[in-house]
Amino acid sequence: MNFFSFSAIHGRMNRIRGKPMNVPATREDLMIVNMGPHHPSMHGVLRLIVTLDGEDVIDCEPILGYLHRGMEKIAENRTIIQYLPYVTRWDYLATMFTEAITVNAPEQLGNIQVPKRASYIRVIMLELSRIASHLLWLGPFMADIGAQTPFFYIFRERELVYDLFEAATGMRMMHNYFRIGGVAADLPYGWIDKCLDFCDYFLTGVSEYQKLITRNPIFLERVEGVGIIGVEEAINWGLSGPMLRASGIQWDLRKVDRYECYDEFDWEVQWQKEGDSLSRYLVRIGEMMESIKIIQQALEGIPGGPYENLEIRCFDRVRNPELNDFAYRFISKKPSPTFELSKQELYVRVEAPKGELGVFLIGDQNVFPWRWKIRPPGFINLQILPQLVKRMKLADIMTILGSIDIIMGEVDRLEYLKEVYGMIWVLVPIFTPVLGITIGVLAIVWLEREISAGIQQRIGPEYAGPLGILQALADGTKLLFKENLLPSRGDTRLFSIGPSIAVISILLSYLIIPFGSNLVLSDLNIGVFLWIAISSIAPIGLLMSGYGSNNKYSFLGGLRAAAQSISYEIPLTLCVLSISLRAIR
After folding, report:
1. pLDDT, tens digit, 9 for 90 and up, residues 469-494
2. How would DSSP label each residue in 496-527?
3. Which of 82, 213, 377, 381 counts the highest number of beta carbons within 10 A?
4. 287 contacts 351 by C-beta, under 8 angstroms
5. Could you give the CA distance from residue 260 to residue 63 in angstroms, rounded to a whole number?
6. Residue 36 above 70 pLDDT?
C-alpha cells in the first residue's frame, strides 16, 4: 500500500475523530493488542499493551524493555573521567549533551572556570548534536505516518554532521570529547571553514524539507489536531523541550539558565500554541534553523586561547605522598586526573534536543559521587502517552508516540527495581501454596516417624533438628547425595527407569489440577480425581525398581513402599493439597 492510499484512510479517521466515542460498560467487547517491541515504530525496546474497542483506544500501558542498565550505580563507583565513556549510551543520538551534563555537574560543584574558547567549542558541538538528533527524529517520524522519502533524505545532512564530529573528536557517535574545565582537543585546521560550508548547505536542505512536508495535505491530515496538550496539562506532567514549547510556553534553559555562552548570541526560542503533533514538528524544524544561526555566530566570533583549564588538574586531587616521588613524576606512572567532589549537593540541567536533561549530584569529599541521579527528558515526556492516546484511533498511536521523540537508552535504565518488585509479586502467589504443601508434607513425615518410633520403642535421638522437624529434609538431602548402586544381575534399564516414573508422576499431578484466577481450584471434584489418577502411577515405578533389582528382598521393599504410598501417603498429601488450595480462595 503506498503512502497516499494509506494516509487517505487515516484522513477519513481524522474527520470522524471529533465524534464522541461510546465506552462499553463491560470488558467483554474489548480487545487487548500487544504493540512492540519488534514493531518498527517502537524505536527500540518499548512495548505497548493497548486496549481497543474496535479502532478506538480505551487504554494504553507502556512496558519498558531492557537496555543500558545501572547507569546511575556505575556513576557512583567511577571517577568522572572514568564515567565519561559510559554516558553517551543514555541518548546515543545526542551524545554531546550527555557529556556536557556529566562535566557541568562537577564544574559547578568545584566552581571550576571554563576557558572562553572551550565554551564556544562546546556550544558549536552541542548545536550540531541538536541538529543531528532532530534529523534522526524527523526521518523515522515521517516513516511512522507513511512517508518514506524524508527518511532517506535526512541521512545526507546527518552524515555531514558526523563527518565534522569525526574530524574534531575521532569518533562519529560516542565521542568522549568533553572534559572537566574544557574539551579534550582543539578544533583541527580547516574545521571551522568546513563547518561554515555545512551551515550554508543545511539551510537549503531545511527549505527542501519544508516544501516536501510542511504543506503536504496528507501529512497535515495525520498530525493536525492529534495529541493535543494544553498549557496547564504540559506543566502538570512536567514536560520539557519541544513537548512544552509546542503548548505555548516559551521555556528554554539556554535562555533561562544562561549556561555556557548562549547569552552572547542572537537567537529566538521556537514555540507554538496549538499543542498538537504538527506544533511539535514545527518547533523542531525551527530549532534546527536557530541552531544554524548560533553555530554561525560562534564560528565567526570564536576567540583564541586554551581549550582546557589545565590548572584544575592540580586542584582538589587526592593527596598521596607516593604521587610526588620520582617514579610518578618523571617516568611513566602518571594516573589520569582525579578530583575530589566537595561535600555538598546540587542539581544541574541543560536543554537537550528532547527536553531538560538534568543530574542531581551529591559529593562526599571523595573521587566517587555519593549520589548520581539522572533526570532524562524522554522518561518524563513518555508518561503522558497513555493520556494522549485515549479516545483516539489506533493509527494515531504512531503519530503521537513519534511526536514525543523518545530514546529508550535514557528511558529504560530507571526500571530495574520496578521489574524486580513486579517479578516478586508474580512469584508470591505461586510459591505460597507450594510452601504450604511442603510444610504440610514435612509435618506428616515427622508425625509418621514419631508414631513409628513409639511403636518400635526406639531409644536415643534418631532425628535432626528440634523434635525431629528437619529429619525429612535431612533424609532428602542424604538421598540426593547417596551413591547410586546398580545390581549386577538385575535389569539395569528397568531399575533406573522406575524412580524416574515415580517422581515424574508426582510432578505431573500438579500440572493437571484445573486452576482458575489467583491459583484457586476451578473445580475441586474433577481436580481430585485427576490428581488421584496421575498419582497412582508412582507405585508402579516403585514396583518396577523392586522387580528390576532381581533380588527378593529388594522386591519386597518395593512392594512395601508401594503399599505404603497407596495406603496413606497419597491420601494424606491429597488432604493437605485440597485444604491449602481451598484456603487461598
Report:
1. 666 666 666 655 655 666 666 777 77
2. HHHHHHHHHHHHHHHHTS-B-GGG-BS-HHHH
3. 377
4. no
5. 37
6. yes
d(CA 150, CA 211): 11
pTM for this predicted structure: 0.66
Q: Please state the rounded mean pLDDT for residues 12-17.
A: 42
Q: How many helices (H) and strands (E) does the chain have?
A: 24, 8
Cis geometry, peptide bond prior to residue 514 (ω within 30 degrees of 0): no
CB half-sphere exposure, 84, CA atoms < 13 A = 20
Instruction: Report the Cα 192 to chain-centroid distance in Å.
Output: 39
Using CA atoms, how far residue 84 sits from 8, 81, 97, in Å, is 48, 5, 12
Q: How far apart are alpha carbons 541 and 544 in whole angstroms?
A: 5
Q: Which three cell numbers stand for residue 114?
A: 571554563
Q: Are 535 and 497 in contact (CB under 8 A)?
A: no
Residue type, 45: V
Extended strands (E) in 229-287: none
Closest CA to 100 of 247, 259, 225, 230: 259
The DSSP output letter for 414 is G
pLDDT at residue 579 is higher than 50: yes
pLDDT tier at 245, thresholds 50, 70, 90: very high
Q: What is the DSSP letter of 534?
A: H
CB 494 within 8 A of CB 548: yes
Beta strands 31-35 and 47-53: pairing type? antiparallel
